[in-house]
Amino acid sequence: MLPFISTRRMILAAGLTLALPAHAIDLNEILKGAMSKPASQPAATGATTAGVDALSSTDINAGLKEALTRGADSAVAQLGQKDGFFGNPALKIPLPPSLKKAEKTMRMFGMGKQADELVLSMNRAAEVAVPEAQTLLVGAVKAMSLDDARGILTGGKTSATDFFRKKTETTLTERFGPIVKATTDKVGLAQQYNQYAGMAAQFNLVDKKQANVEQYVTQQALDRLYTLIGEKEAAIRANPLQAGSDLLKKVFGAVVGK
User: What is the distance between the alpha carbons of residues 194 and 196, in angstroms, rounded to a whole number?
Assistant: First the structure.
């Protein structure tokens, strides 16, 4: 653990106490302009509805399972490696807004190294935790019902993300927590942040979702994971003829009338 003298404790506490009330993180704002946004895909209507209705339940189910498995595998592989988060400006997890004032104060007093180490440990923790999602995501795909499949197919470009969140978020949050904590505990500032941010949260000076480093990193990691899965799905929807699989071309082509 890094040594902290009482003056530095006061600096961090003051920075957190002066922070404006934090709001929940808006992932869309964090990633705005940084990640490519596939063209929006309207829900199936008219002729496309007829195309979907013509598909067999077997094709819909198999096509969705293939698409979701591909998206999950690709997202986990991308994020669950060294620099999967930290090395990508669009995915890197920053210090929460509630710590920004404290960070500036720390850098003024020569504590920039500690702040940098905390950011690095946060992202490394996310990179280590993400592979834990693989089994649960695949399990959710295997357990998908025919009703789930049809709803995802015709539900718009975020339907896969919504499905995965509903089926896996609670369990993944529980699994990610200890992994993130084990990594961030190696940096003394993590404990200091939890102590002061926790006190500040009692007075509504810090959003409760950001009052704990482990909770904050876990939520940020999951947000990015689900977003990437949704983007993989959206890419298939936007270009079903280039999906690389006859089944995917058939199923998603029916949605867009191709």
Answer: 6
The per-residue DSSP string of the chain comes to -----HHHHHHHHHHHHHSPPP----HHHHHTTTS--PPP-PPP-THHHHHHHTS-HHHHHHHHHHHHHHHHHHHHHHHSSTTTTTT-TTTPPPPPGGGHHHHHHHHHTT-HHHHHHHHHHHHHHHHHHGGGHHHHHHHHHHT--HHHHHHHHHS-TTHHHHHHHHHHHHHHHHHHHHHHHHHHTTSHHHHHHHHHHHHHHHTTSS-GGGSSHHHHHHHHHHHHHHHHHHHHHHHHHH-GGGSS-HHHHHHHHHHHT-
Q: Decide if pLDDT at 222 tops 90.
A: yes
Mean pLDDT, all residues of the chain: 76
Q: How confident is the model at residue 200 (pLDDT cuts 50, 70, 90)?
A: low
Q: What is the pLDDT of residues 28-85, one digit of tens each?
A: 333 333 334 443 444 434 435 667 778 888 888 998 899 889 889 999 999 999 999 9
Which structure tokens are listed for 102? 């404290």
pLDDT above 90 for 138:
yes
> CA–CA separation, 9 vs 109, rounded Å?
12
